[in-house]
């Protein structure tokens, strides 16, 4: 069986995100927000998902590349009668002292060789593919209506060709501008060209203003660009992925909706943004987390994940009418994990607040109600520190005292202690130190002195890749023999021959995992660098680079045997893992980082 890779690239402008297939189809696009129903969803159902394709008559071959250092995607199609290019982008640039990021998808079609004959199909759907939108056509546009939505497609292609899906000869540049809300009015060709030029300039300037080391720089640049457009700029939330229900492995039933923001990943995301020097994105995400935190100030606990607007109710439903990706059902809308008990998140939030007290780019007045706020966080930690929970991997029917959960309780208390010292509150400082000791006691209860390794939970003999963080977060001294022994035990049991890493290999609610979790392999690389095995860290990092698709985009999961990509795609946190691992190696290499 051939290796499976996702055949799409992504475009976006921090307001929406779309997947463009090598066959030119818009395979996935939710409008008007990341978590809205899709208007194009062929990724999950070829018939009910609608279509927006630009294809030639007869056989063809295609290639796809990004315009260098941008989120502008170019697909070149070679066919019997010639060759043409489709340039897809979501406009984003500065306008009137703010970012202009309209709900607008622009497709430029230009002939490169000969006179290819092509057909353009635009058939948007609504209500998750239960209905096709109605088409009302004008002289130079089509208005789509349905399910309370209105979209307008403006073009210089004869409208009759679009309505009837007729073939025509491409002998001049054509434009397609799909606008949410109503038909867009204005000079089509000059506007599209202006928006394209300014969007390219914006992305290239954004990269120039990034602090990215030379170590495998192209991969880090692409990861940074991918992460950037997973941020919903209106609130600052960063979603795990733009897709839902792409299976972790074929037939596994592990098909989840990832169009939400997980608090458990706060520390890793903020770290990656800090590494590349993008304070504004970091600040927006920080503000999203703090907005949730203040609204939850009197609540007993946080949810593991929230909607991009901070929405709490993410009720999971099954879309029975959809075929699923490559026939893999179920298709899930919403995520039941929002109801889980996951106790590492209090530490994640505490660590995310720490820059307010240690980074001088934040002014003192932004430390809102410090005493009350730190006390509230410590209350949450105290109430949950002895609890069984679902753990980082969100087991649906398993609750234990997890090592990883208590590691972040420990780290959160560390952060709270530093914050308390900054504001001079001795009482809070003492509380943080006391709670940190309680968390450490639970962590030590996971230690197996015979195997010289920390297990994944108290009373369990199973190992878990999440405990690699014990080394990276300096709970175990990276220079100690204990850290080296712990790492050796984990790699012996969880590492594949090809450098991939299983989260765990024991049976969970759905059986034994069949694929590896990519971010765990990047954690392993970081752990190698931490314990001084730098040459191996570089080698293992290089092994992982081959698991991207043709556009350097990485999935959530990778088959440990054939290297196939699975899981929601692209996975923002896989790219975060790559960025953090590359940075960890770069600063330890015995040569200049940037020059």
Automatic annotation (TrEMBL):
It holds the Pfam family TREH_N. Residues 217-583 form the GH15-like domain. InterPro entries: 6-hairpin_glycosidase_sf, 6hp_glycosidase-like_sf, GH15-like, Trehalase-like_N. Residues 9-155 form the Trehalase-like N-terminal domain. It comes from the Bacteria. Keywords: Hydrolase. The keyword Hydrolase applies. One of its GO terms (molecular function) is hydrolase activity. This is Glycoside hydrolase family 15 protein.
């Amino acid at each position: 069986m051939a290796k499976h890779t996702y055949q799409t690239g992504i475009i976006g402008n921090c307001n929406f995100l779309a997947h463009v297939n090598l066959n030119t189809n818009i395979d996935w696009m939710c409008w008007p927000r990341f978590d809205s129903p899709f208007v194009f969803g062929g990724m999950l159902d070829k018939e009910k998902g609608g279509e927006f394709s630009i294809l030639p008559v007869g056989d063809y071959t295609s290639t796809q590349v990004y315009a260098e250092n941008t989120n502008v995607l170019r697909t070149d199609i070679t066919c019997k009668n010639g060759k043409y290019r489709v340039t897809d982008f979501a406009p984003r640039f500065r306008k009137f002292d703010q970012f202009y990021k309209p709900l607008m998808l622009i497709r430029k079609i230009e002939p490169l060789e000969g006179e290819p004959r092509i057909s353009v199909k635009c058939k948007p759907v609504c209500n998750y593919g239960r209905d096709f939108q109605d088409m009302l056509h004008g002289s130079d546009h089509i208005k789509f209506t349905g399910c309370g939505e209105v979209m307008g497609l403006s073009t210089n292609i004869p409208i009759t060709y679009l309505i009837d899906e007729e073939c025509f000869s491409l002998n001049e540049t054509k434009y397609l501008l799909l606008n949410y809300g109503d038909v867009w009015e204005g000079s089509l060709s000059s506007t599209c060209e202006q928006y394209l030029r300014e969007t390219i300039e914006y992305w290239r300037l954004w990269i120039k203003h990034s602090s990215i080391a030379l170590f495998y720089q192209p991969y880090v640049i692409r990861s940074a660009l991918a992460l950037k457009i997973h941020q919903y700029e209106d609130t600052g939330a960063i979603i795990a992925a733009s897709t839902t229900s792409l299976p972790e492995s074929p037939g596994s039933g592990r098909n989840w909706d990832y169009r939400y923001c997980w608090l458990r990943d706060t520390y890793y995301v903020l770290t990656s943004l800090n590494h590349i020097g993008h304070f504004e994105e970091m600040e927006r995400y920080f503000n999203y987390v703090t907005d949730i935190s203040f609204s939850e100030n009197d609540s007993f606990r946080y949810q593991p994940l929230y909607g991009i607007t901070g929405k709490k109710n993410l009720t999971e439903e099954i879309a029975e009418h959809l075929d699923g990706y490559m026939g893999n059902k179920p298709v899930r809308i919403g995520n039941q994990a929002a109801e889980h008990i996951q106790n590492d998140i209090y530490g994640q939030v505490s660590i995310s607040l720490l820059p307010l007290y240690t980074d001088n780019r934040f002014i003192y007045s932004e430390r809102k109600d410090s005493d009350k706020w730190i006390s509230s966080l410590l209350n949450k930690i105290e109430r949950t520190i002895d609890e069984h929970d679902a753990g980082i991997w969100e087991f649906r029917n398993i609750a234990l005292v997890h090592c990883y959960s208590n590691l972040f309780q420990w780290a959160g208390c560390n952060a709270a202690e530093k914050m308390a010292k900054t504001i001079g509150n001795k009482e809070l400082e003492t509380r943080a130190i006391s709670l940190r000791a309680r968390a450490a006691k639970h962590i030590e209860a996971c230690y197996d002195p015979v195997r010289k390794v920390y297990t994944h939970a108290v009373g369990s003999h199973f190992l878990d890749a999440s405990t690699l963080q014990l080394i990276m977060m300096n709970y175990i001294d990276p220079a100690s023999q204990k850290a080296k022994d712990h790492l050796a035990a984990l790699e012996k049991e969880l590492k594949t021959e090809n450098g991939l890493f299983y989260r765990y290999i024991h049976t969970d609610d759905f059986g034994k995992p069949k694929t590896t979790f990519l971010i765990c392999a990047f954690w392993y690389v970081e752990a190698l660098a931490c314990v001084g095995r730098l040459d191996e860290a570089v080698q293992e990092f290089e092994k992982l680079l081959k698991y991207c698709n043709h556009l350097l985009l990485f999935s959530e999961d990778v088959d440990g045997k054939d290297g196939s990509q699975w899981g929601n795609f692209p996975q923002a946190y896989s790219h975060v893992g790559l960025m953090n691992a590359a940075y960890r190696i770069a600063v330890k290499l015995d040569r200049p980082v940037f020059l």
